[in-house]
Batch of 2 targets.
Target 1
Amino acid sequence: MALWARLDDVCVRYGPKIVMQNLSLDIVEGAITCIIGLSGAGKSTILRLLNGLKKPDTGRVFVRGKDITEMRERDLIDLRRTIGFAFQFSALFDSLTIGENVALPLRENTKMHDGEIRKLVSETLDSVGLAHVEERSPSELSGGMVKRAGFARAVVSNPAAVLYDEPTTGLDPIITHVLTDLIVKLREKLNGTAVVVSHDLESIYIMADYIAMLFEGAIVAYGTVDEIRRSPNPIVQQFLQGSEVGPIPI
Amino acid sequence: MKVFEEVGRGTIGAFAYAGGVAELLGDALRFIAGLRIRVRETLDQAFLLGVQSLSIVILTSLFTGMVFSLESANQAVSYGVGNLVGGLVAFTAARELGPMLSAVVVAGRTGAAIAAELGSMVVTEQIEALQSLGLSPTRMLVVPRLLALVVMLPLLTVLADIVSIVGGMWVAGVYAHISQESFITSARAAVPFDDVLKGLFKSVVFAVIIAMIGSYQGLQTRGGAAGVGKATTGAVVTSIILIFMFNFALSYVLFGSS
């Protein structure tokens, strides 16, 4: 199995709070890896470590074999252009229309002509089920549509990997199902890697190739969906069953 | 001992803040020097930050010029030097009132707007979204605001100079019966063109202060809505304090011997 990325003995703290301690995790190339764990466990921080938005206090982060913790900002910018990032609240620029939001990485990072950009933006929005919304502003769309627009912006540059931060949180079951399918389809279309941070176990069971569970700053379980579901680890079982009783303190 | 600790912490914080602003300014100047400028965004910002400040700058400078003339004209006439009022008003407007007043007003309106907008973008992850797309927030957001203010604040200052002189002239005529001819002749004699240019140079420095402090405070926002409020207040207070400090320093350097 080729690796797309590796977190090696990573420690991260926010002020006095230790978020990750000697955390190691492999992200398999071409697979969907889902990261689960309690709220505030540091799942989103893993995504920010993977595209260099956050540097670990100690430890190393490798992406395609390159240590990005030592990279210059210039090189990190080049790296980020190869990684799509769909944010939890989509983070669309509210001063721009949906079309301008999706077109932004193409306008700023490529030499494509206006006509080509328009065509690609339209196709990408179409592929996430958002036809004819180019001229609308983010505030005019529903939560599910905004999420899909965020997906479109993340994948429009044809990235090698896409990072999804809580893609289905706060959405109704139908839209959740639509977005879950979309993540799988986009991964197949891009033929790349996806890392998904989520609490939504139903979606994770559908889309994940691998699941990693984060608890108290370390990965306590890693494996395929079946392996995780059958895990003897009481922490994993308590989390999957949503039980109040067990080793995870409430 | 606690007092010393607090003083030490405050000093370190002040140097860290100054270093952060200087680093951001250096970054912005690097993009400007490389002509990596977003023209449309800069023009939009010039309209939002400059043109939309017109009414508040006109009103504040008009009434300040009027009150300055009101206070000085009666006194000057009673001492038999009413012919100097025009010079006094114009001299003060070009050197101090115009640049300072427009800068303080713009800091209150525009500095706050910059900090609030960028702060909101931080808390809604839009800044991280820019970075994740391989785009520099400094180039995308700070440079257009800096350039817009550097162009618009001197223009607003020229307008403030003119409006305060005209307001002063009207009050001098109505309350102290100083003729327009006498007022204008005195104003022309008292203010060499050089002084106007020096006043405009001050406004360029103030524009840099407002844009950079607003941007830095905005980009340093932490927390939610409360953080944005704190950043906005901090931007206005810090900008106004720095404008007053730099105004003294610049007046000393530019006009110290005249």
Target 2
Amino acid sequence: MFLVTLCQSIVAQDKQAEMADVLRENGKIYNVVAVILVIFIGFLIYLFLTERKLKNLENKLNK
Amino acid sequence: MLSGLSWWKILCIVLLFYTILAGFLFEVPRRFILNESIRNLYFHVPMWFGMIFLLLSSASASILYLKKGRQFYDTYASQSANAGIVFGTLGLLTGMLWAKYTWGAYWSGDPKQNASAIGMLIYLAYFVLRGSIDDLQKKARISAVYNIFAFAMLIPLLFVLPRLTDSLHPGNGGNPGFNAYDLDSKMRLVFYPAIIGWTLLGFWLTDINTRIETIKHKLDYE
């Protein structure tokens, strides 16, 4: 009985923490990253347009 | 398209691109309980770093206002505190999601959670105070004093009090922080750029809002 418990604890120590290995192996992680990048780029373009609008307003006001 | 932007805004874009790519694709250490959620380090923690830097610059602007009395410092102080609160709120929300996964509940009344919630409330009161005073100079002066007090309260709330007691959060009580041994050199490679990138995004938002408020002020009072 003691031996069984001892063996089990050794096996448990050997087991690695579970990670998303499958998601990485089949490459679907790139899909996720691509989606996030598209959203990020979208926000950046929006931010840039806001920046330009503001610049125009400042120029108009300072004239 | 990027030519009109100042260098630190371009740096912000580059670093955040890198954070997203490396944050999801680079290798991370295998840890029980945390598992793949260890990648939250690149997104949740920089929110708090960003908040601290924004609120620090806000408090500095308030000190400068009291010293020099220029309207710009008051506008900047209020807008950077505003962005700081946004970052803090996002930090609280992402922290709750991460806590559900690793601690078992969204809110467990943990000292770190309670203290950061109180810190947020102190800063919300800053805007209530600003909204309640009509006179421009009085508003700027009183809220500058309050803002300095708020920052002086925030530091012990976030970094001292939770460490004096037991907390589930890394870096507090009996728990060593990520820095002690969990954060390996591969993670630092993404973690530090992530902090700089997200913080710069906060200052970008502050910059835009400060300029809008400056225009408003010009139209209303000049």
